[in-house]
Amino acid sequence: LNSVFGSICSITGAPVLDTPRSSNGRPVIDALALFGNPMRPGLESTVRLTLAKRDRVEIALLDLFGRRVRTLASREFTAGEHSLRWDGTDDAGQRLARGVYFAHVRYASSGFSDTRKVALLR
């Protein structure tokens, strides 16, 4: 590229990217992962998210009808990797019935959104 565009572009050197790196050295991208699924009695599920840039994030657990049963987070997160645990309870601390629920995440600035299914066994 330098030989093709070198005559019209005066920028030289290695590109500098403001992208955070994960613990294994790879660039961090906006992502959602769910571990501990299906969720068994006495155990917790872990919602792991990564952010390429600092952003306000909302993570909610929804029932099959799309009703919010638990808000895990609604705040600003720094760039990088984060983990949150869900113990199978609703916002009032009551144990939810067994069934299928959905972890939904939405990043305010980047617009990233994703949903993952989790089965709750009792």
Protein traits:
mainly beta, about 5% helix, four-stranded antiparallel beta sheet, three-stranded antiparallel beta sheet
Can I get a quick summary?
By secondary structure, the chain is mainly beta. It has one helix at 2-5, and strands at residues 31-35, 45-51, 55-62, 68-77, 80-86, 99-107, 113-120.
Notes on the protein architecture:
The chain is mainly beta and 122 residues long. The protein starts with a helix and ends with a strand. It is globular, with a radius of gyration of 19 Å. A four-stranded antiparallel β-sheet has the order 4-3-6-7, with no helix packed on it. A three-stranded antiparallel β-sheet has the order 1-2-5, with no helix packed on it. The chain has one helix and seven strands. Mean pLDDT is 83; it is low at 13-20.
Mean pLDDT: 83
Strand order of the largest sheet: 4-3-6-7
State which percent range the strand residues make up. 35-45%
Query: How can the largest sheet be summarized?
Result: 4 strands, antiparallel
Report the end-to-end length measured between terminal Cα atoms: 59 Å
Question: What would you call the shape?
Answer: globular
Order of helices and strands: HEEEEEEE
Percent range for helical residues?
under 10%
Q: Count all strands and give the number.
A: 7
Sequence stretches where pLDDT stays below 50 over 5 or more residues: 13-20
> Class by helix and strand content?
mainly beta
Radius of gyration over alpha carbons?
19 Å
Counting DSSP H or I runs of 4 or more residues, the number of helices is 1
